[in-house]
Design brief:
Layout lengths: L2 H41 L5 H11 L29 H15 L1 H5 L19 H4 L16 E3 L4 E3 L1 H10 L12 H13 L24 H11 L1 H4 L6 E2 L6 E3 L17 H11 L13 H11 L34 H6 L3 H9 L3
Antiparallel strand pairs: 1-2, 3-4
Helix pairs in contact: 3-7, 8-11, 10-11
Keywords: Heme, Iron, Membrane, Metal-binding, Oxidoreductase, Transmembrane, Transmembrane helix
GO molecular function, one term: heme binding
InterPro entries: Cyt_c-like_dom, Cyt_c-like_dom_sf, Cytochrome_c-type_DH
């Protein structure tokens, strides 16, 4: 074979070898990509609709004013007891009935209630999620073990049944059922069973106290948030969505005739903001919030600026030094305006009471 032919043969062999290497590398890369996609699809948990909205909000800077930070899962979280531990017999029957009264309050006490028609049609569970067992969702972790106790609101020592009565009058905007009756006693039985045996510091109890803003909470900013994140469930006018049969709510009204009145705990911005931060939109948790602290305050300001039933509160907090600084109605034990007590900024008020603490 001539030298020219050998050179051509070598060129062809080198070209073929290089092509084979390139094809092999492409095969390896494609295989790796396909393998990672396959494993990712099988290992990654399915996102909830709330998580999907969160991801979208983080990609779009106009949807959130700051990054929403996920919170780690803690072994210190309060955990409600397993329902399998409810005792048998009459005691267990009362506990189960008490839970049903919490979950389906309107069935028994709503406008068409089987026991008495004395409330606005909301359920206790609308504000105490999952029967009062979800962390930072106004749960009952330390409720029963805290009573009897001195109530700043009334200025006297009260039993747990007194707090239930206040919920009926304020959050349910209704009348008080018989404290000695079967229903109130069943609710107490459930609250005792579900909560901690003694008053302790429990992580995740009640509401989360989120950091004060360095400005007043803004109802106008809150309105934008409400329209984009809340109205699809609670309605453009805060009217909520009635459940089948129109006796209770799938999504409760946030203002208006059938919502909590202006004496309820939810009408305080700190309570409302701490609640929505860890629970709203529906499906959100403390571990995976969707709202920033700032958004939570603004949303609370909008909702609580809307019209609702009024309850006389002139006898509340006889010792004004114990009155919560975000109580939306006077009188107050300071010179700050009512508008600031309702919307903030709250830190100057808190600092005032801290410096004048007896």
């Amino acid at each position: 074979m001539s030298k020219t032919n050998l050179d051509e043969t070598e060129k062809i062999l080198v070209h073929n070898a290089r092509s084979a290497v390139v094809i092999a590398l492409l095969f390896i890369v494609c295989s790796s990509i396909l393998l990672s996609v396959f494993l990712g699809n099988n290992q990654a948990p399915e996102r909830s609709s709330a998580a999907q909205q969160l991801a979208g909000a983080q990609k779009d800077p106009e949807k959130t004013s700051a990054a929403v930070v996920a919170n780690p899962v803690s072994a210190q979280f309060w955990k409600a007891p397993d329902e399998n531990t409810i005792p048998a017999g009459k005691a267990g029957e009362m506990i189960r009935y008490g839970k049903d009264l919490i979950v389906n309050t309107a069935k028994y006490f709503g406008p068409g209630g089987s026991v008495a028609a004395i409330t606005n049609g909301m359920n206790c569970q609308n504000c105490h999620l999952q029967g009062g067992t979800k962390i930072f969702a106004n749960n009952y972790a330390v409720f029963f073990s805290s009573y009897p106790k001195k109530s700043n609101r009334s200025g006297r020592v009260v039993p747990a049944s007194n707090r239930i009565a206040e919920c009926f009058e304020r959050s349910l905007a209704g009348k008080v059922p018989d404290p000695s009756g079967k229903e109130v006693q069943a609710i107490l039985a459930y609250l005792k069973w579900v909560g901690a045996a003694k008053k302790t510091q429990v992580f995740g109890a009640g509401y989360q106290r989120i950091k004060y803003l360095d400005r007043a909470a803004d109802p106008l900013k809150g309105k934008v948030l409400y329209t984009s994140k809340c109205a699809s469930c609670h309605g453009q006018h805060g009217e909520g969505v009635l459940a089948a049969g129109n006796q209770s709510y799938t999504y409760p009204p946030l203002w208006g005739e059938h919502s909590y009145n202006d004496a309820a705990g939810m009408h305080r911005l700190s309570n409302f903001a701490g609640f929505v931060k860890n629970n709203m939109p529906f499906g959100v948790t403390y571990q995976n919030p969707q709202l920033t602290d700032e958004e939570s305050w603004d949303l609370a300001a909008f909702v609580n600026s809307q019209p609702r039933k009024h309850k006389d509160q002139h006898q509340d907090y006889p010792d004004l030094a114990t009155k919560p600084i975000d109580s939306p109605f006077g009188p107050y034990g300071d010179q700050f305006a009512m508008e600031q007590h309702k919307y903030g900024p709250f830190k100057p008020i808190a600092d005032y009471y801290k410096s004048n603490k007896k």
